[in-house]
User: Which sequence fits this backbone?
């Protein structure tokens, strides 16, 4: 189902994108976090910390940093440092996320959902913020209203700002296409124009980006640069196998290093273990640790710590609907820069990359005097929020944490989702009819101007609901904003504490009932900071003389 031609085209791009970054050293302020990093194989067999954070991803990094201001923290990340795969640090090589094969160790962990859709998970320090399209936009109000959390909105604001002062830039409209796309959105009535804005807005805006104007990526791992210099240890190639318990209290974790040796890390009195292993990793780890539906755990002969039917349930993915157009010019690769948002939270965005093909002079498109013309590919992609279709996550017969669990999302099983897709596709149709888009049409043999679509093109008759619905279902793929599995109110309470277990929280995208805003990363980073601040506050109230422990 997901075998889009785009995928094939992008695969062939692979060689063009191999942009080596000069080796980064700690002398560069951005890479200060390297001072905290140690390979897990260098760590002792047993250690104690106030807090252990599992997963050095989008939420885990800001969370560990925040806790380190007051407590000793161990951050365990199964992947390596991104400097080992420097292409993830650059915008022009961001399409690697669609092409590079999963070798079991690199940042690109792939899996195919039970729906047949190809999906990717981050496996690197910085998590999926090192693979993504970089767009940064805050959550929408409805997300906060329905999320089951009694938010302190002042603290939310402060937490967003803390993230933004370090890793967020005004998205750089680095090629003519993003500008044309923005104009087309406005012509198609996706107004008003809100200029540059980090807040969620109806209309068209330029958002934030974790790519700076030179195209360097500043993922969540750069938030580690703000950690207390003596209180944080970041272990890489540290794969957590399970959480350890004494009755219904979490006491520590067991993790393996790259040499296959097992280590144990335990928490001190009043400490906690926080799972930030992502939407796939967090429910998977709870299941492997014995928290989940009893019958499922028993069928795999896993010891049951707590019978919890909701772990791995309510898995949702925002379906992507899209068109890809070949452009007869060379454009710089561009991640997401602008967004058009309709009421009902239907969103349109775009990315471009250039193609490894050029047209020979025999084509009328090639101006006289030129040998050839280079081609680019522009993708117009659509998403909607408040997805109502749901699936679930189960362990396969393999209880190896490195293997992907079985995941289904049941795209479009809820009719309201289909109606939103129809709205988005129709708007895409209007957008393609605009003056701004006229320029990207090319002339065919009969002399007619048309879009050079890479299949699939939009249905001919967008008034015909049936054919648009069919387009939605037939072309469904992922927007990579999958969420759920450890929902607030079901698996964790409003403070992200695992219900029924002491000293254990889950803090990441797996807790979301809805994908926040147009794109979730901003809110995932904010959440790490927010929960960290809450924990510090809560503990200072409970234990006024309890000051935590330094590592060094
Ligand atoms: C291709 C792509 C494009 C995207 N584009 C955008 C975008 O432009 N804007 C946006 O806002 N969002 C975007 N997203 C979505 C966004 O990146 C994610 O929603 C977000 O990063 C998820 O954060 P997380 O903390 O929940 O998980 P992650 O960031 O994935 O972190 C989980 C971490 O836990 C580690 N881990 C897992 N299991 C274990 C274990 N057992 N032991 C130790 N460590 C473990 C993983 O290696 C990983 O580092 C995109 C995502 C993808 C994949
Ligand atoms: C096409 O791409 C090649 C390789 O990047 C470059 O050398 C050449 O100048 C480009 N041609 C045009 C017309 O942009
Ligand atoms: C498009 O679909 C609508 C609704 O089904 C129908 O009434 C109309 O005749 C169709 N138009 C064309 C040109 O087929």
Assistant:
């Amino acid at each position: 189902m997901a075998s889009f031609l785009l995928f094939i085209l992008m695969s062939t791009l692979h060689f063009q994108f191999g942009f080596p970054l000069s080796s980064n050293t700690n002398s560069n302020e951005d890479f200060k976090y390297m001072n905290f990093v140690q390979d897990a194989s260098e760590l002792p067999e047993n250690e104690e910390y106030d807090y252990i954070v599992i997963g050095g991803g989008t939420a885990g990094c800001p969370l560990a940093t925040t806790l380190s201001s007051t407590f000793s923290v161990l951050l365990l990340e199964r992947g390596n440092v991104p400097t080992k795969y420097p292409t993830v640090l650059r915008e022009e090589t961001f399409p690697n996320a669609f092409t590079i094969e999963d070798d079991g160790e690199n940042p690109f962990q792939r899996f195919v959902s039970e729906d047949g859709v190809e999906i990717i998970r981050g496996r690197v320090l910085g998590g999926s913020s090192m693979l993504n399209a970089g767009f940064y936009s805050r959550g929408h109000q409805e997300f906060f209203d329905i999320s089951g959390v009694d938010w302190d909105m002042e603290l939310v604001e402060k937490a967003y700002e803390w993230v933004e002062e370090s890793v967020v830039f005004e998205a750089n409209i680095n090629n003519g296409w993003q500008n044309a796309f923005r104009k087309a959105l406005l012509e198609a009535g996706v107004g008003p124009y809100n200029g540059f804005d980090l807040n969620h807005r109806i209309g068209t805006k330029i958002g934030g980006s974790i790519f700076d104007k030179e195209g360097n990526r500043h993922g969540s791992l750069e938030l580690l640069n703000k950690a207390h210099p003596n209180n944080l240890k970041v272990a890489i190639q540290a794969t957590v196998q399970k959480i350890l318990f004494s009755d219904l209290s979490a006491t520590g974790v067991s993790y393996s290093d790259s040499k296959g040796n097992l280590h144990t890390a335990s928490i001190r009195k009043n400490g906690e273990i926080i799972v930030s292993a992502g939407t796939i990793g967090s429910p998977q780890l709870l299941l492997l640790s014995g928290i989940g539906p009893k019958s499922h755990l028993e069928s795999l002969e896993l010891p049951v710590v707590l019978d919890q039917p909701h772990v791995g349930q309510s898995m949702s993915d925002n379906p992507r609907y899209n068109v890809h157009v070949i452009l007869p010019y060379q454009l710089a690769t561009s991640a997401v820069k602008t967004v058009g948002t309709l009421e009902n939270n239907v969103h349109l965005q775009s990315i471009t990359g250039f193609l490894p093909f050029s047209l020979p002079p025999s084509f009328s498109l090639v101006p006289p005097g030129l040998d050839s013309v280079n081609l680019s590919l522009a993708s117009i992609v659509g998403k909607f929020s408040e997805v109502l279709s749901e699936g679930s996550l189960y362990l396969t017969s393999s209880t190896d944490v490195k293997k992907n669990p079985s995941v289904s999302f049941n795209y479009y099983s809820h009719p309201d989702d289909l109606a939103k897709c129809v709205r988005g596709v129709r708007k895409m149709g209007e957008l393609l009819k605009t003056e701004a888009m006229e320029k990207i049409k090319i002339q065919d043999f009969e002399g007619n101007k048309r879009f050079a679509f890479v299949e699939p093109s939009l249905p001919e008759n967008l008034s015909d609901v049936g054919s648009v619905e069919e387009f939605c279902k037939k072309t469904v793929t992922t927007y990579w904003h999958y969420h759920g599995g450890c929902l607030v109110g079901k698996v964790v309470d409003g403070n992200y504490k695992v219900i029924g277990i002491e000293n254990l929280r889950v803090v990441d995208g797996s807790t979301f009932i809805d994908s926040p805003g147009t794109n979730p990363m901003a809110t995932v980073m904010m959440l790490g900071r927010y929960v960290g601040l809450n924990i510090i506050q809560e503990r200072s109230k409970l234990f006024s003389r309890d000051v935590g422990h330094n590592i060094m």
Notes: Residues 461, 463-464 surround 2-acetamido-2-deoxy-beta-D-glucopyranose (ligand 3) (CB under 6 Å). Residues 1-27 have pLDDT under 50 and may be disordered. The chain has twelve helices and 27 strands.
